[in-house]
């Protein structure tokens, strides 16, 4: 099955180079069908003041029961109603957040031949890339990225991480350590809110040593026709959860809310957290992974860091037995994350088609 993924189906074009070439019109490959464009008539924009919930995360571990209960309640409603929320007071150093974002901006501003040394292939996606999916002639998104494995340690290969800027590898390692810690705390909150033991979800992911964690650094260059394209097409994240460090100056992430797209306004020094398909499956759809996309603009480029916190890739993921009842039968069949993620790696971002297509036509607990 993996044989079809050995190489890209056509030469890879770096979007940053396209943008820098001074083109006034974007190539046809990047133009989305009218209904998929950022301002198409199918979008009924919500009032601007709507934003995803912002949660003071330190309260989850407060000695004050009232603060703790309130923070957990807010997380529960965000996971079940929005699939997205922001956390502040999360324990990760603000200087580290700022520093790691700057270092990746420096990387993307290096000469293209330096970056090309890290050019990726669809076998593992590790390295410097410009497309998701291997279908020839597919519509392309207006972004480049760098993808790397952080956990499990057996997959962590710092030689595949950028050697320049000089402190990049060291800073990515430190950032990974801190964000994995935050991921573990979030998993506890998610488990407790489902009425499960606090380490339930982490154990379902394979335990602390075995979780998968990878980083995708997104670079969205300026675009001469931002109304015709997207930085990243609509999709839900296939993994467990995503811990996103957004660009601090330029908004671009949009979250689907009913029939509208809400532009997320990042709170200062916040991470944006979203539920992925694997947690939707484990929670038997009590928690929702939600479609999101990225818009681009004509004046400013953007850098964001998406840290994916995933189950060990060969474990079967299925609805937790404790959450399956006669009234709420198991909605999904067991499947490993390895099998699951092949879909997005082959077809590219495609809304919520994948997780929805898994839903069983009949109860699975017979």
Automatic annotation (TrEMBL):
The UniProt keyword set, sorted, is: Dioxygenase, Iron, Jasmonic acid signaling pathway, Metal-binding, Oxidoreductase, Plant defense, Vitamin C
The GO annotation for biological process reads: defense response; negative regulation of defense response to insect; regulation of defense response to fungus; regulation of jasmonic acid mediated signaling pathway
Spell out the Pfam families in the cross-references: 2OG-FeII_Oxy, DIOX_N
The similarity annotation says: Belongs to the iron/ascorbate-dependent oxidoreductase family.
Q: Which organism is it from?
A: Salix dunnii
> What SUPFAM superfamilies is this protein classified in?
Clavaminate synthase-like (SSF51197)
Q: What is this protein called?
A: Fe2OG dioxygenase domain-containing protein
What positions does the domain Fe2OG dioxygenase occupy? 210-311
One GO molecular-function annotation for this sequence?
dioxygenase activity
The cofactors required by this protein are: Fe(2+); L-ascorbate
Phylogenetic placement of the source organism:
Eukaryota, Viridiplantae, Streptophyta, Embryophyta, Tracheophyta
Reaction(s) catalysed (UniProt annotation): jasmonate + 2-oxoglutarate + O2 = (1R,2R)-12-hydroxyjasmonate + succinate + CO2
């Amino acid at each position: 099955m993996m044989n079809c993924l050995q190489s890209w189906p056509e030469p890879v074009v770096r979007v940053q180079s396209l943008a820098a070439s001074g083109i006034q019109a974007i190539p046809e490959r990047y133009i989305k069908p009218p209904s998929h464009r950022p301002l198409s008539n199918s979008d009924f924009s919500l009032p601007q003041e709507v934003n995803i919930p912002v949660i003071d995360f330190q309260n989850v571990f407060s000695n004050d029961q009232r603060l703790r209960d309130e923070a957990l309640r807010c997380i529960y409603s965000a996971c079940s109603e929005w699939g997205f929320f922001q956390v502040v007071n999360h324990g990760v150093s603000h200087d580290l957040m700022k520093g790691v974002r700057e270092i990746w901006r420096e990387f993307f501003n290096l000469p293209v031949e330096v970056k090309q040394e890290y050019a990726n292939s669809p076998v593992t996606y590790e390295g410097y890339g410009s497309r998701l999916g291997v279908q020839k002639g597919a519509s392309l998104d207006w972004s480049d990225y760098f993808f790397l494995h952080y956990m499990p340690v057996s997959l962590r290969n710092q030689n595949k991480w950028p050697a320049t800027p000089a402190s990049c590898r060291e800073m990515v390692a430190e950032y990974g350590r801190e964000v994995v810690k935050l991921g573990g705390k979030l998993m506890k909150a998610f488990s407790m809110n489902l009425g499960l033991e606090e380490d339930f979800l982490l154990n379902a992911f394979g335990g602390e040593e075995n979780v998968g964690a990878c980083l995708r650094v997104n670079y969205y260059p300026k675009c001469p026709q931002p109304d015709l394209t997207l930085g990243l097409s609509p999709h839900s994240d296939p993994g467990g959860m995503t811990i996103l460090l957004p660009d601090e100056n330029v908004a671009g992430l949009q979250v689907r809310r009913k029939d509208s797209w809400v532009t997320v306004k990042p709170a200062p020094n916040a991470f944006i957290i979203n539920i992925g398909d694997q947690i939707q499956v484990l929670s038997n759809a009590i928690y929702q992974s939600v479609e999101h996309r990225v818009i681009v603009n004509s004046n400013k480029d953007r850098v964001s860091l998406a840290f994916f916190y995933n189950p060990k890739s060969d474990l079967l993921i299925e609805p937790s037995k404790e959450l399956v009842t006669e009234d709420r039968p198991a909605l999904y069949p067991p499947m490993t994350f390895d099998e699951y993620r092949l879909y997005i790696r082959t077809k590219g971002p495609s809304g919520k088609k994948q997780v929805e297509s898994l839903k069983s036509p009949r109860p699975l607990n017979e």
